[in-house]
Amino acid sequence: LCVSHLPQLAAFGDQHWRVQKLVDGGRTTTQVDRLESHERLDELALMLGNLSQTNRAAAQEALDAAQQRSRELLAGNK
User: What's this model's pTM, rounded to 2 decimal places?
Assistant: First the structure.
């Protein structure tokens, strides 16, 4: 388990979860959601600043680079 605010690091995760602190009527709760592929891309873009096309493209690039690096590391362990 890794908790990170760095999208470049978060891109390496096999699963991505969003943890939110919510306050309603003076009561604080925590909401945890597992993100699917498009939600994960949007969350990484938000971590980069906002949901712009530029940040979505950068988030996709980070995911692609992380997957490539993971494949390289696995191939080196064989």
Answer: 0.81
Q: Residue 59: is it exposed, middle or buried by C-beta count within 10 angstroms (0-12/13-18/19+)?
A: buried
The one-letter code for the residue type at 31 is Q
Residue with tokens 């530029």: 54
In this structure, what token pair is assigned to residue 17?
Answer: 């979860």
Q: Which helix (H) or strand (E) holds 18?
A: strand 16-24
If phi > 0 it is left, if psi is from -120 to 50 it is alpha, else beta; for residue 25 that is: left
The backbone region for 49, taken as left when phi is positive above 0, alpha when psi lies in -120 to 50, beta otherwise, is: left
Measure the CA–CA gap between 4 and 40, rounded to whole angstroms: 14
Per-residue pLDDT tens digits of the chain, which is 78 residues long: 888 889 999 999 999 999 999 999 999 999 999 999 899 999 999 999 999 999 999 999 999 999 999 999 889 876
